[in-house]
TrEMBL record:
Residues 117-128 have a biased composition (Low complexity). Keywords: Membrane, Transmembrane, Transmembrane helix. This is Uncharacterized protein. It comes from the Bacteria. The chain crosses the membrane at residues 6-23. It comes from Treponema paraluiscuniculi.
């Protein structure tokens, strides 16, 4: 029994020394400094990792924004070209309308084209302009079986009405017998 009590005493002393050293090292100023240093190093690693992820996401978003800016720039360039084309087309259309009106006035002023009994019926079939200075480009009658609106007296109005219904310019050109470019020009000028 003496051996047993001596053994327990040595074990108790060993445990006491172990816990004393552990408590002393755990609560020493050096232990606090080491623990704080490890925590700071861990936080720095976490911050670097998060910063790298944020920088990668930011670079990705900047790339997407640059792509959108390039696309918008291309579209604006095309839009400016289309506006210039439309302005040129309007100018040419107005100039050709003024020339055709002058030509009509010159033809009507000739003595052989003045009112003759045989031509009185044909001139009455053409609709007269309601406003002074109105230019009539199309004065053909609209055929009902072409799918055009019968109440519209002018082919120009019918083309515009068909485009407003959502029909393709190719289909309208086919049905009216007019060139595709002319139909597209009328549709664009009516907008």
């Amino acid at each position: 029994m003496l051996v047993m009590s001596i053994t327990f005493s040595f074990v108790a002393v060993a445990l006491l020394v172990y816990f004393y050293v552990k408590v002393r090292t755990s609560f020493s100023p050096d232990a606090y400094a080491k623990t704080m240093q490890q925590e700071v190093i861990k936080m720095i690693r976490d911050i670097r990792y998060e910063a790298d992820i944020a920088v990668q996401m930011l670079e990705k978003k900047i790339g997407e924004c640059n792509q959108v800016v390039r696309t918008i720039d291309r579209k604006l360039t095309l839009l400016n070209e289309e506006i210039l084309k439309e302005h040129t087309a309007r100018t040419l259309f107005r100039a050709s309308g003024a020339r055709s009106q002058e030509t009509q006035e010159e033809v009507c002023a000739r003595p052989e084209h003045r009112s003759a009994p045989s031509r009185a019926g044909s001139s009455a079939a053409k609709p007269a302009p309601t406003k002074r200075g109105t230019i009539e480009v199309y004065n053909e009658k609209i055929i009902r079986d072409n799918g055009l609106r019968a109440e519209s007296p002018l082919l120009k109005d019918a083309i515009i009405a068909l485009s407003e219904k959502g029909l393709a310019p190719e289909f309208i050109a086919e049905k009216t017998g007019k060139p595709l470019g002319e139909v597209q020009l009328l549709i664009n000028l009516s907008r």
